[in-house]
Design goal:
7 helices; two-stranded antiparallel ribbon; two-stranded antiparallel sheet; elongated; single chain; mainly alpha
Amino acid sequence: MVAICYLDLAWVLGSGALRQARQSRSQVAMRGGKTAKVGLFSPVVEGAKMLMGEEELNKLRGEVIKAHTQVISTFVETSESKFGKIALQKLFEAADKDSSGQLDKEEIRSCLIDLGFNWMDNDKKIEGLVSKGDLNGDEEIDFEEFVKQAPKTLRQNLVKLAKQNGNDLGFLV
């Protein structure tokens, strides 16, 4: 019963803070000196802080992030399986807007943005990605090159996207 009261109190306090933050677009500090956004789940996180203490919550948060990162890595590791090869083929076909069998820099940029990797919308990052994946030097990525580079790129950027989404939803307050 006490826990429910604390959660209700945290919800009420958190909801008010959430409204205020949305109006003023303010952010709250997060450990590590970064900023965490107030989001949909912020009141629940604030309630958990009250119940568990910030140190315990941070330990739990770290375990959840580690487990989620492992899920992403395990998913990406399926790229060698029959299912993974089909998924990579479909991803390549979706990215290959002109059906040339090659991905140029703009197709790669568009694909990355479509996947939600907006931080990759940068000429230098696209150049770096193409130079790493382009094994034959034609400044385009064919399917064989894509299959070799995509899993690493997906793993890195899916983890980054998960962190961004967690922050946007208010899990990091």
